[in-house]
Specification:
The complex is a heterodimer of chains A (217) and B (294). Chain A is an all-alpha fold and 217 residues long. Chain A is built from eight helices and no strands. Chain A has one domain: MetI-like fold. The mean pLDDT of chain A is 95. The chains are: A mainly alpha (217), B alpha/beta (294). Chains A and B meet through helix 5 and helix 6 of A and strand 7 and helix 5 of B.
Chain lengths: 217, 294
């Protein structure tokens, strides 16, 4: 098998990895904000429940969570699972896992906003939701960008974990090629793919940080 | 008098409050007489009556009454921890008090129930009240991610839902008055502290409040920047803007204020016209406090 074929196969796998990456971000970034609100809620039982959720998500391996989400419908409830559930289960597991991490990042950002901002907004008559949307949120984004970049880069590499559900993403493909070829070339090529993709992610996030650099507080 | 006021610190909140009523009543009544004689026809814009506030067991305001008339400039002085800022924060709804009455003109924000506990009006009334006052903070509290112009105009457009063009015109005029023309597009971190505070004043004025509160507006500024901010407040006083200013700038208070209030340990120890209080304080405690500024 020549390098072009390997590249073509891995490229196809990469598209699946990219889908996992994008769908996970689209799901977990908004969900994480909701989870952060739950975590900070004055309704104690809700806050406790969310804390338990976060602690489970952070305290167990993502690979195990992938397996649980995939097998639970069948072993837990006797629902037969179709083949395309592999991909859906992967997205669900990634979203709920990353939402927990993002929630804690949002919380750190929200709690770092000086109290005076809320007081000024209150005196000017902004409602609580207006205060959050128009005054607090953008400041939170600026403060959490470095931490979010870290998570996003980790996510790029974590997509490879979905090989346990045999989702045909890049790492699964690389493993298959390596086994068939008895060679490490596919792994090396996949490594370059991950590295280049992360370099692009880091570059974009860096640009976003630069854009937010127009003010400091 | 001084002894009684000082002694009240050791007593529990309730008895201290009764104490304050009996001792404070003299000064409050005096103050009321003074202001009626000064401004006979004026109607009070803000009425704080028998405000009592405590944090846990610590009583910070002991049955304080303060009425501010239209066009009046009131300076509130006193040592740290005397409750000056708390009084301002109660008036601006940043803190709630346990007992007493607060009204902005005919709008009653909080009043006592039969048991003497303050009951606050529903949210809609509080929102209406917020459009009647403005507050300038010691630490400015501008929105750092917004331009100067956006800081000044956003609440008027978003909260008061006023016409955008009208608000913009007003904002440019206000900024010009504050000596900040040409700074509209800058963000707060590009301005000096004194400029930031003047933006904060413009932001408060943009909502057309009937009274402006200042909580130590120059305490975070060096003397040079302080001068610029005080000049703006002086100009506002000359335009008959109603203001209540918590300050440590004694000479400024004497020049600008129609009435000075000296607070300590949660009570109004003494109040009177600027010259009365500063040149001829009646109470030992006021004399001691003012002697530090001589």
């Amino acid at each position: 098998m020549d390098l072009t074929l390997i590249l073509a196969m891995l490229g196809e796998g990469f598209l699946v990895s990219l889908q996992i990456f994008i769908l996970t971000l689209l799901g977990s970034l908004p969900l994480g904000l909701l989870v952060a609100f739950g975590r900070m809620s004055r309704i104690k039982p809700l806050s406790w429940l969310v804390q338990i959720y976060i602690s489970i998500m952070r305290g167990t391996p993502l690979m195990l969570q992938l397996m649980v989400v995939y097998y639970l419908p069948y072993f837990g409830f006797g629902i037969s699972i179709s083949d395309n559930y592999r991909f859906i289960a992967t997205i669900i597991a990634f979203v709920i896992n990353y939402a927990a991490y993002f929630a804690e990042i949002y919380r750190s950002g929200i709690q770092s906003i000086p109290h005076g901002q809320y007081e000024a907004a209150g005196v000017l008559g902004y409602s609580r939701s207006q205060t959050f949307i128009f005054i607090v949120f953008l400041q939170v984004v600026k403060r959490i960008l470095p931490a979010v970049t870290n998570e996003v880069i980790t996510l790029v590499k974590d997509t490879s974990l979905s090989f346990v559900l045999s989702v045909p993403e890049m790492f699964t493909t690389a493993k298959a090629i390596a086994a068939a070829q008895k060679s490490m070339i596919a792994f090396a090529v996949a490594g370059v793919f991950y590295y280049v993709f992360n370099a692009i992610v880091a570059f974009i996030m860096n640009r976003v940080e630069k854009i937010m650099d127009y003010y400091h507080d | 008098m001084t002894d009684i006021v000082r002694g009240s610190e050791d007593i529990s909140c309730v008895s201290a409050a009764t104490n304050a009523v009996s001792t404070g009543a003299v000064s409050v009544a005096n103050g009321a007489n003074n202001t009626t004689s000064l401004l006979p026809q004026e109607k009070s814009l803000v009425k704080l009556t028998h405000i009592q506030k405590s944090y846990g067991n610590v009583c910070v305001l002991q049955s304080i009454s303060l009425h501010i008339n239209a066009g009046e400039v009131v300076a509130i002085i006193g040592p740290s921890g005397s409750g000056k800022s708390t009084l301002l924060r109660c008036a601006t709804l940043l803190e709630t008090f346990q007992s007493g009455t607060l009204a902005y003109g005919d709008l009653v924000v909080a009043k006592n129930d039969a048991h003497g506990h303050a009951i606050y009006a529903p949210k809609s009334v509080l929102k209406e009240a917020k459009s009647r006052f403005g507050l300038v903070f010691q630490s400015f509290n501008l929105f750092p991610h917004c331009s100067v112009l956006h800081n000044v105009t956003d609440a008027a457009i978003r909260v008061q839902k006023r016409n955008r063009d009208e608000v913009m015109t007003q904002a440019h005029a206000l900024l010009a008055k504050m000596g900040l023309s040409g700074k509209e597009k800058m963000v707060p971190c590009e301005l000096s502290g004194g400029q930031q505070q003047r933006v904060a004043i413009a932001r408060a004025l943009a909502l057309n409040p009937s009274i402006l509160f200042f909580d130590e507006p120059t305490s975070a500024l060096d003397p040079e920047l302080t001068r610029d901010v005080l000049k703006v407040i002086r100009d506002l006083a000359a335009e008959n803007m109603t203001m209540a200013i918590v300050t440590h700038e004694m000479s400024f208070a004497r020049d600008v204020a129609d009435r000075i209030i000296f607070m300590e340990a949660g009570v109004i120890v003494e109040q009177g016209t600027a010259s009365e209080l500063i040149n001829n304080p009646q109470h030992m405690r006021t004399k001691t406090f003012l002697s530090h500024y001589a």
